[in-house]
Amino acid sequence: MGDILQLLKRGNRSAMLAAIINTIIAIIKGVAFMFTGNVAMFAETMHSLGDAANQFFVFVGSALSKKTPTEKYPNGFGRLVNLVLLGAVLIVGIMAFETIKEGYHHILHPTKSGGFLINILVLAVATILETFVLFKAMKEILHDLDIKATGMSVFTKSFANLGRAKPATKLVFMEDLVATMGGLLAILAVVIAHFTDYHALEGIASVLIGAMMFFVVGKVFLDNAAGVIGQADEEMENRIGVMVMEDPDVKDIQGITVIKEGEDLHVELEIEVDPRLTVAAADDIKDRLEEKIMAEKGVVDVTIEFDEEDGVMTWQKPGEENKE
């Protein structure tokens, strides 16, 4: 039991915070829907319920993925977070389907909903809370990548570096971005429907919110399916390649592979060296390179193989091929 608690402490903080806040938001929205019957509020309730369940599973998966490798599973549990995320998006998919179905029904049979002020107040509070969670996810993306940012640059830099974010943090970011946009859309639909009597607009907003949820499902599914299979990190391959070639004893790189498993990176490297080097000298090179590569964020193991220099340069520095 103590081991499990220690693992949970290492879970993704953004996911846990998002799960708690979205649970509170879902309860508030659900109560508001019961009193008002507003279909846009129903869509937002389903959205928040899906997000809360999803983010809770993500938190648990991100924690369990940090479990120490065992004799039975020597490669560790890094890909577990990808598997959990694949299962989690099914929840969002079901919620998205129900949201679109209810919205479509309301478009065909529009009805007037009550509680205008309640709807606006609840949606406004929920949108503010979701924006807060989104901002925390942005900050965590930048923190994980050691990027400094303040003010509006937090927004721009987090969007620019979203592709490099941890899987769990990326999911929280995307879900709360859609939740914030959905909240604003729902507020707009409620206001217009109230003052124009165009009540079908609430159903249209519900369909659009469901469609945005499906977008998150598709994006997260593709990203984590690649993670389960074992996706190469080209950016890190180039970064490590440049670092390795700076070593005076490395003549060339025959091959370099960096495989992502959840938040972990596994590096395989084959380098060319002077064939006249002694075993002791080669061992020093190996130790030196391993120390440098292991210092990179996320790298958990390094495998280095040696080959004798063949006089043919295989490695190309990033960007060199574009200069020809």
Could you characterize what this model shows?
It contains 10 helices and 4 strands. It has helices spanning 2-8, 13-36, 39-64, 80-108, 116-144, 153-160, 167-196, 200-229, 234-245, 279-294, and strands at 231-232, 252-261, 264-273, 299-308. It is elongated. The mean pLDDT is 83.
Which features does this protein show?
alpha+beta, 65% helix, elongated
Rounded mean pLDDT score: 83
Q: How many beta-strand segments?
A: 4
Helix and strand run: HHHHHHHHEHEEHE
Approximate helicity band: 55-70%
Rg from alpha-carbon coordinates: 25 Å
Low-confidence stretches: none
Placed side by side, the strands forming the largest sheet appear as 1-2-3-4
Q: Quick one: overall form?
A: elongated
Biggest sheet: strands, sense, closure?
A: 4 strands, mixed
Structure described in brief:
By secondary structure, this protein is of the alpha+beta class.
List the helices and strands and how they pair.
Blueprint: H1 2-8, H2 13-36, H3 39-64, H4 80-108, H5 116-144, H6 153-160, H7 167-196, H8 200-229, E1 231-232, H9 234-245, E2 252-261, E3 264-273, H10 279-294, E4 299-308
Helix pairs in contact: 2-3, 2-5, 3-4, 3-7, 3-8, 4-8, 5-6, 5-7, 7-8
